[in-house]
Amino acid sequence: MSDTPAPPAAPSASLISTTLVVYALFGVAALVGLASSGFPLIAPLSGIVGIIGIILAYVKRGEATGTWLASHYRWLIRTFWYSLLWGCIGAIIFVLLAIIVIGLVVGYIIWVATTIWVIYRLIRGYVLFKDSEPVPGMEPVAPDLSGRSVTMERRVRMNSHLPRLGSRRAGFIRPLRDSLS
User: Fold this and answer.
1) 69: closest CA among 143, 126, 147?
2) Domain locations in the chain?
3) Segment 45-62 mean pLDDT
4) What is the pTM assigned to this prediction?
5) For the chain, what is the largest distance between any 2 Cα atoms, rounded to a whole number of angstroms?
6) What pLDDT, in 10s, does the model give residues 128-160?
């Protein structure tokens, strides 16, 4: 047995084309966001073109599992949701702090920064896509016991609070075991 992981499967030509279409849809949505000076309420990818892109990404994500494209789909999906999150934060600040004019400025800055961040992520992802390379840091995911996908690194972090048998952290188990015998 070898500890060398199996090479990722080669994606089909149609999956590569679909990924390119998702990048293009997100790119158009981000450019519309930038052309409107970062003022599309909520987020740069929340327009109809961005929503079509995220739906397409979710539909094709399963087919990409086990290929280098899986990291790109994860990258694109995260880009969409984080841009939506920051767009909402910008909107909340815009509305809540509009009474003291600073909210208008801060909310607007958050929207412009989010749009620029989205364009950066799209360019970085596309450059890696063009070179047929996975996105670094978007490691494969494994399902946990509930069926949800969790990265292996996150699973280790989530379980780090649990006691480990044979370690000092599980010291409370030894007195119980000794009292039973």
Assistant:
1) 126
2) 13-138, 143-180
3) 90
4) 0.69
5) 75
6) 999 999 999 876 555 555 555 555 455 445 555
Tell me the C-alpha to C-alpha distance, in Å, between residue 53 and each of 76, 90, 132: 9, 22, 20
Closest by Cα among 40, 48, 49, 161 to 90? 40
Question: DSSP letters of the chain?
Answer: ---SPPPPBPPPHHHHHHHHHHHHHHHHHHHHHHHTTT-SSS-TT-SHHHHHHHHHHHHHHHHHTTBTHHHHHHHHHHHHHHHHHHHHHHHHHHHHTSSSTHHHHHHHHHHHHHHHHHHHHHHHHHHHHHTT-PPTT---EEE-TTS-EEEHHHHHHHTTTS--TTSGGGTTHHHHHHHH-
